Amino acid sequence: MTMAMLAGATVGLGLYLLVRALFPARPGLAASLAAFDRARAQDTAERQRRVSPGMEEISGLRARVGRALVRFYESRGWEQRSVRADLALLERSYEGFLATKFLLPAAALIFMPVLVGYAALVGLGDSLAVPAWMALIMAGFFFFLPDLQLRQEAAQRRRDFRHVVGAFLDLVAMNLAGGRGVPEALMTAAQVGDGWAMVRIREALANARIVGQTPWQALGRLGEEVNVAELRDLAAALTLVADDGAKIRQSLAARAASMRSRELSELEGKAGERSQSMLIAQLLFCFGFLVFLGFPALIRILVT
């Protein structure tokens, strides 16, 4: 019965894919708008790749599969903004991410004959049900594994980026107090430090000068690209009070202090969580030691 269901599902999936390949769906409004935005932003993306040597480069089968999957997602209107923001923060390509999500489960399914041979070797019989379910479980795990890794790495790097933004705000406020204008203060503050986050801010400001944008517009676009709310708030504040240097200094100083207090609160919360984890580990260790001490006496009582 199980094999019949698996065979029917396989045949049905094959027929569905054949019909979709012969009669592809017409691109909707969302897909058309996405294609228009992609064409408009192509020149900017090329400039960013030239000035960002750390951007991931893919080629070969992975590149072809990734481009095909990107076209498929865009034809369905699937934007995945959070995923794109995490990838932009980590300087990885969207095509490479989608190709990884497809190729890892495909590799798990390709190794199904190996699972069949292993099942026969350990004495599970000649049935294909157990290896098939094992292959499907492995494929599902490998499909969601890139998302989990991406979220963890992006969360850590976004925290580092927020820390750098707080220091950047202090530097901008110091330059404004020294008599510089807002654009000069932003660019001078971005020249301090060679960390990856400060380099991204410096590149955004330099590209804004090339394309004729204001520095706060560049910071707002960078905040949208990497999904950092502090940069978006900074761009909005600079847009509103660009003509009043005193209020800008006060606002930047207040924002930097607020970010530092928030980071301190997060660190204290993490320290408390780790202290609780250590307490639980110590209690478990003590319980195991008591079991170790009492086990011989308990066995002797039960035996006698």
UniProtKB/TrEMBL annotation:
The chain crosses the membrane at residues 6-23, 102-124, 130-150, 279-303. Pfam families: T2SSF (PF00482). It comes from the Bacteria. Keywords: Cell membrane, Membrane, Transmembrane, Transmembrane helix. Signal peptide: none annotated. One of its GO terms (cellular component) is plasma membrane. It is found in: Cell membrane. Residues 168-294 form the Type II secretion system protein GspF domain. It is a multi-pass membrane protein. This is Type II secretion system protein. It comes from Thermomonospora curvata (strain ATCC 19995 / DSM 43183 / JCM 3096 / KCTC 9072 / NBRC 15933 / NCIMB 10081 / Henssen B9). The lineage of its organism: Bacteria, Bacillati, Actinomycetota, Actinomycetes, Streptosporangiales.
